[in-house]
Write the structure tokens for this entry.
Amino acid sequence: MEKVVKPICRWGITGEIGAGKSTVAAFIAQLGIPVLDLDSIAKQLMKSNEYLRAQIKAEFGDDAYIGDELNRGYLAEKAFKGGQVGRLNALVHPAVYEEVARLESKIIEQGHRVIAKESALLLQHGRPKEVDFIIWVQSSEEIRRRRLSKRPQLTEADRDARMKHQTSLELSQHLDKNRDIILENNGTKHVLQQQVLQLTMQLKSECENLLQSRN
């Protein structure tokens, strides 16, 4: 018997570094929507996928790893400060797409009709055709810098390099004004949580209408 592919509604959660993407994703997950953190999946694959490890070592040198662990500082230096972010992403993204497809299949089998994906570079190559609605989380540069200063693993130079890189991409230009939402996050977490609650209810309703039209 041919397997029936059930329709699914996909959300994207993105924005510049320090805007609050992960906080928004966590609030959405608390409301029962499965959220796939593509950046965390990428980091895990860079550590566990033997083929990908070999590719990264061939491109960036054996110093990309310390034993079995990813040498994050070294790779950040090579990628963000050395202008090789695109090359690193080109190696990692195919493995991420394959893993996301596998995880999506499991989530659909569990009966979910909505899946959210969080990624800083969701719009790097334009707007993904498979994503129905995108939430662009936006904060002022001053607030983003303040939030990033609380991340001890990032030096000031690291923060500046990443902010400069993401801003230069102008990813928000790929948003669809008829479908996507810009979520301002310049206030408290409580205010943001209430915004996310209302937005989730709105998008779930729009997803139901969308999925009915696909049946």
Summary: The longest helix spans residues 189-214. The mean pLDDT is 89. The first strand starts at residue 9 and ends at 15. Residues 39-111 form one domain.
